[in-house]
Amino acid sequence: MSSDRQPVEDPGAAAAPPPSGGAFLLAQLGAHAAGRFGERVGELGLAPPDVGLLRMIALEPGRSQRSLAADLGVVPSRVVALIDSLEKKGFVERRRSAEDRRHHELYVSEDGRRALGRVREVAALHEDDLFAALDEEDRVRLTALLGRIAEQQGLTPGVHPGYRQLPKRPN
Amino acid sequence: MSSDRQPVEDPGAAAAPPPSGGAFLLAQLGAHAAGRFGERVGELGLAPPDVGLLRMIALEPGRSQRSLAADLGVVPSRVVALIDSLEKKGFVERRRSAEDRRHHELYVSEDGRRALGRVREVAALHEDDLFAALDEEDRVRLTALLGRIAEQQGLTPGVHPGYRQLPKRPN
DNA sequence: TATTGTTATACTCTATAACTATA
DNA sequence: TATAGTTATAGAGTATAACAATA
């Protein structure tokens, strides 16, 4: 470190205290959690968005790409790419609907089901590592507090906001 | 409990329960918080990374791009682009160092300082909205719990992990 | 020769718009 | 004409590598 970095009387400190509020902590920890989870499922050959999609399809087999796009708040062409990747890995199948041949019904394959099983294990490990600082009681308290916020903020359970595009501002 | 359950098929429900753990909630809420904050500061003409940079420079005026890159965990060329944008907006100044003419010393301009003031206001509003579901006591509890996790996880105070690149997995 | 900052380039993510097949 | 999915294309973000100035 440059030992003599101006004997400043720090005019900035007053103007820009480090963000210490709970909102920043929440964003910081959330990004950290998402990043660590991504690394772990990456070792299973899955990207984080893959995991969410896979789960949604497993939960409601046969659903269409359109409905996924709507639930995720994402444009249909994006789902094409996402499903392409999942299909190439052999985790989901597209089947042309018999009733309306415009639709693709989506199904999780046997491999996909196995992958989801491993994801579940990894998620448990992840949570345990992430909350290592807290005992069981505090974990319950924290989850309850977060749950109340999520509900009040109107978040869709199980849907990570990372899918949908942020409104872009001119730079 | 299930006295006479219909022979439901739904093989997926058992295989893929919606993620309900605290880790997912944390990631979900963190992304939500970051997104909302981004919208708000966007109205001030700042992107979220701008805010962090501006704060770091204000806190330690005269620091170099190299040192910022190290603290953020990003490559130096990225800092070039980030500072370019901030300089173009008139929020920071690059000054060629007299002692070592390879360095650019970074300073927050008067406009930048004003912007930081507005950011502080916006951040307070943001936090208040985000935690609307909680009373003051619960907010303190939550922040304490998050702080313990952040410390145990080794997060650098005030540095959002969103700056640094996630290790990419082959897809 | 090593270091700071910069430019050139490429790759990923994600959107918009145009297009095909089906209804 | 309207809808599901796809392809083509563009823009933002971010990295790697080569480079110029300075030490």
UniProtKB/TrEMBL annotation, chains A, B:
Superkingdom, taxonomy of origin: Bacteria
HTH marR-type domain mapped to chain residues: 19-151
Annotated spans, Disordered: 1-21
Pfam families named among the record's database cross-references: MarR_2
High-level lineage: Bacteria, Bacillati, Actinomycetota, Actinomycetes, Kitasatosporales
The name this protein goes by in its record: MarR family transcriptional regulator
Stored SMART domains: HTH_MARR
